[in-house]
Design brief:
The complex is a heterodimer of chains A (114) and B (136).
Chain A: E1 7-13, E2 16-25, H1 30-42, E3 47-58, H2 60-75, E4 79-83, H3 88-95, E5 104-105, H4 108-113
Parallel strand pairs in A: 2-3, 3-4, 4-5
Antiparallel strand pairs in A: 1-2
Helix pairs in contact in A: 1-2
Chain B: E1 11-17, H1 23-36, H2 41-60, E2 66-74, E3 77-84, H3 102-109, E4 114-117, E5 122-127
Helix pairs in contact in B: 1-2, 2-3
The chains are: A alpha/beta (114), B alpha+beta (136).
Chain lengths: 114, 136
């Protein structure tokens, strides 16, 4: 069994840049997420939604990417929101206290309407 | 590498090179052992997360050599041990008081988690509660 890459799909909705992430975010795959988010920031997106609905696993490697991205976006007075249903990823956001740092929504539509 | 002792106190071990591409395999191994031992999905997810953190720490710190993961079914509870060359935790990004320290996250998941360092190895140990004690 070889390493499994993330599937990353970019769209826009209501003026927000949306990045849908599918797969497991760990030490191996988190650079793929970091590069995708950095690309959006460097293209000028100031309002970004990361849709983590199809992420089955995330450890602190992935959380570090989220936090670093949030800091960069805050420097630009932008917003970074997460879409994350109940489950293992939501749990790790909760036990690390990041559920109080990021706006967390149940759907992309809800996030972009906020 | 997989070594199995049949029955109570079965023990399993996995040895992988200390590189990030093996994280999926390490999690799958730990999760499969926990599932085989009868733990519910919540505990299995916690075991996978703790093992991922415990193995990513030394890899992220750039240790050379192998990571050894040992899992023992101790009559209903799992004892897990991750062994590598010595390492110190790289500084993790932090924000608004949120906890991103790998070792601290393992301790949050499993309260008995401990880290033992000597000149040649760093060992992270933790164990689950007994699933039989939980009424299963």
């Amino acid at each position: 069994m070889g390493p499994i890459d993330l599937a990353l799909e970019r769209t826009t909705e209501s003026g927000w840049g949306v990045l849908a992430v599918e797969g497991e975010v760990d030490l191996y795959t988190s650079p793929q997420l970091r590069d995708a988010v950095n690309g959006m920031i460097e293209e000028g997106h100031e309002r970004i939604v990361l849709d983590l609905t199809s992420v089955g696993f995330m450890d602190s490697s992935g959380l570090g990417v989220l936090v670093t991205a949030l800091k960069r976006i805050r420097e630009r007075d932008g917003s970074l929101a997460l879409v994350c249903p109940e489950g293992s990823v939501h749990k790790v956001l909760t036990i690390t206290g990041l559920d109080k740092v990021f706006p967390i929504h149940r759907s992309v539509a809800e996030a972009t309407a906020a | 590498m997989l070594a199995t002792t049949v029955g109570r106190n079965a023990s399993f071990s996995l040895c992988v090179p200390a590189t990030a591409e093996h994280m999926t395999t390490v999690r799958a191994f730990a999760g499969a052992v926990a599932r085989r031992c009868g733990f519910d999905e919540d505990v299995i997810e916690d075991v996978k997360l703790a093992v991922s953190e415990a193995c990513a720490g030394p890899i992220d710190a750039g240790v050379s050599g192998d990571i050894d993961l040992a899992v023992t079914d101790d009559g209903g509870a799992l004892r897990l041990e991750v062994r590598s060359a010595p390492w110190t935790e790289p500084e993790q990004p932090s924000i608004d008081g949120a906890l991103l320290d790998r070792s601290a996250l393992v301790r949050t998941l499993f309260g008995d988690a401990e880290r033992l360092d000597d000149e040649r190895t760093t060992v992270t140990r933790f164990s689950t509660a007994s699933h039989t004690a939980a009424g299963r």
